Amino acid sequence: MTKIKPTLLVLAAGMGSRYGGLKQVDKLGPSGETITDYSIYDAIRAGFGKIVFVIRKSIEADFKEVFSKFDKKINIEYVFQELDNIPQGIAVPPDRQKPWGTGHAVIVAEEKINTPFAVINADDFYGAKSYQAVADHLTMDQRQEKDTYCMVGFILQNTLSDFGHVARGICELDSQQRLKSITERTQIQKELDKIKYKTQDDQWHSLIGNEMVSMNFWGFPTSVFGLLKSHFNTFIKNSYTNNKAEFYLPIAINDLIQEQKANVKVLSTPEPWFGMTYKEDKADVMAKINALVKAGVYPNNLWA
Questions:
Q1: Which of 230, 223, 260 is CA-nearest to residue 247?
Q2: How many Å apart are CA 170 and CA 163, to the nearest integer?
Q3: What b/e sequence results for 207-216 when a residue is b if at least 16 CB atoms lie within 10 Å of its CB, and e otherwise?
Q4: CATH number for the domain harbouring residue 252
Q5: Whole-angstrom Cα distance, residue 304 to residue 295?
Q6: Considering its fold, how many domains does the chain have in total?
Q7: What pTM value is reported for the model?
Q8: 137, 150 in Cβ contact below 8 A?
Q9: Rounded to whole angstroms, how far apart are CA atoms 214 and 204?
Q10: What residues make up the domain containing 173?
Q11: Domain-embedded: residue 243
């Protein structure tokens, strides 16, 4: 029997407002590689059989100019996350400018995905062993744990920026390494040797730093689409007048957990995570990639 190869869904429709540009296509490796180049390279090695990019129509030309090189290496498809891709009968709010969030980005890719699939951010580096762990989970005998989701967990203090606040999903796990809850914190920052976050009522709270966090690396069966669409329909009706409201994927998954409709296995990884929230993060990311190349983890030119 032919082993089903999972799909990798790459969320690349973000506008990069804090970064100040399209970090999805920023050249960082020694031969001009983007972070997404390393993601695709690791995914191919791990056994993924297809890549689906979620982008916006306005960046299509720039994006395809950079990533058309993958066409001969793995099956590539594109879908568009646009403001008008919402439930029938609901009009786009006149002042809405931002996309509807990561949960919505997953939903719009449904027509392109017919296998178990992983979800990543285009501008996050997760490491080869992370992709292998998710691929192994997605291709395991599903009779053992039917429709079990998975998530790669990272340690909070290793995911922060020196240049401003970040958003992270703070995870609570049970004794079986399954996700009990995930709480989205949107203003986490370092201050000297401390880590703190601010709530909506402008109150500051402390974090230890060893908390497990979600960096939006998930694994799902295709049955997740129906559940996410149901929650998105409710979200958009309730948040219609809030032009900044976003349908965050971690929040949607947390809701499904609390409703006992989702069972999420948290996968540990020895890999580092790094990414670019601010323009100032770029130099650090380039240094880390060059160190991995020097250590022989990646070739000097990924696609030579």
A1: 230
A2: 20
A3: beeebbbbbb
A4: 3.90.550.10
A5: 18
A6: 1
A7: 0.91
A8: yes
A9: 21
A10: 7-294
A11: yes
